[in-house]
Amino acid sequence: SKKIEDLPDPFKMVEKELQPFSDSIKELVSTDQPILSMAAKHFFEKRHGKRFRPTIVQLMAKTVAACTPEGKQGKEWEWSGASEIDMEGGVVTSKNHQGSEVWRKQAQLGQIVEMIHVASLIHDDVLDEADTRRGGEAVHKLYSNKVAVLAGDYLLARASVLLARLENTAVVQIMATALESLVAGEIMQLKASPEELLQMESYLKKSYYKTASLICYACRSTALLGGHAYGSTVATACEEFGFHMGLAFQIQDDILDFTAAANILGKPALADMNLGLSTAPILYAAQEFDHLRPLVKRRFKEKGDKQTALEALYKSKTAMNKAKQLAQFHAQRAVDALLRLPQSDARDALLRLTYVVITREK
Ligand code: FPP
Ligand code: FPP
Ligand code: MG
Ligand code: MG
């Protein structure tokens, strides 16, 4: 069977296309309020992060261009967002995709998603009182909480304007729902009852809302912009991929919170526990060691709780492995969804990216 390294490199494949990304996003977020521009631009220039999301959107755009829209074969193109020049027998094909109006809108969606992501991180660091992000000081540390709140709001406002400019009501609706989910996930985390704190199901549900939703809605939107119908098998496969990819991503993130050092992560380590949150590794340890359960339920707020929980986690022979298997399970489901789409280099690059997500070390 094929080796992962034989598949196309996802980041290389979109490198050139993401190049103008930073330049145009700088323009997109400029305002006549210097402090807001500074705070916002900061995150798109020097500290641009892994760019997972725009990479996924870009690759997904290519992947869906290689799929024939259902019911569109030989039919007149009806979707208003596409110009005739894009079409070949009514279909945006891989051949005429790059440089087309459809492609431009999908690239714009990638930028919108990254803006939403960065806005949520700026706010998240205020909520979590985390002082570092992407290897440097968080916006609220560089400036103040007030500036961080406004910078996040501003980015969100800009993202909304750009979203409206796509002139696709279904996509606006879907992405607005993604925003709603992000906030719902944070609230769920904040308000979790002692029982919920112990439940794997609540943990996964919260992870869906706060992480997977953005990428899964972005993937469906990419398919829609590509001319695929809302309920089409293509759009559904895209969304399913995003759902499982997002969960795998978050579970891996939660594992790294225990296993990686802060200087590698570019943000604080052991952050979840310090916030009183239990993620997959601790939840599995608590299934094994009864004495952890009351600690989880009281959010590790008594002296020595965190130490006790960490010792149990390191003592457990299975907890960390089970967490890794959970990430692998979702990665496999993401792969299964991709395999329902026709083979293309972009699809294969997404397969490889799925592997990268569960083996990444930062
Ligand atoms: C990171 O999680 C945070 C999120 C995935 C979402 C944060 C969402 C909000 C603050 C709601 C407001 C949303 C918008 C769009 C302004 P984490 O704290 O587990 O990860 P970390 O280790 O990277 O900090
Ligand atoms: C840090 O993202 C944020 C999180 C770990 C929580 C939110 C995650 C998502 C919304 C991502 C879903 C992503 C995929 C790929 C399915 P990060 O580690 O990507 O931060 P960076 O942008 O600074 O690299
Ligand atoms: Mg948080
Ligand atoms: Mg955080």
UniProtKB/TrEMBL annotation:
<dbReference type="GO" id="GO:0016740">
    <property type="term" value="F:transferase activity"/>
</dbReference>
<dbReference type="GO" id="GO:1901663">
    <property type="term" value="P:quinone biosynthetic process"/>
</dbReference>
<comment type="similarity">
    <text>Belongs to the FPP/GGPP synthase family.</text>
</comment>
<keyword id="KW-0414">Isoprene biosynthesis</keyword>
<keyword id="KW-0808">Transferase</keyword>
<dbReference type="GO" id="GO:0008299">
    <property type="term" value="P:isoprenoid biosynthetic process"/>
</dbReference>
<keyword id="KW-0479">Metal-binding</keyword>
<protein>
    <submittedName>
        <fullName>Uncharacterized protein</fullName>
    </submittedName>
</protein>
<dbReference type="GO" id="GO:0046872">
    <property type="term" value="F:metal ion binding"/>
</dbReference>
<keyword id="KW-0460">Magnesium</keyword>
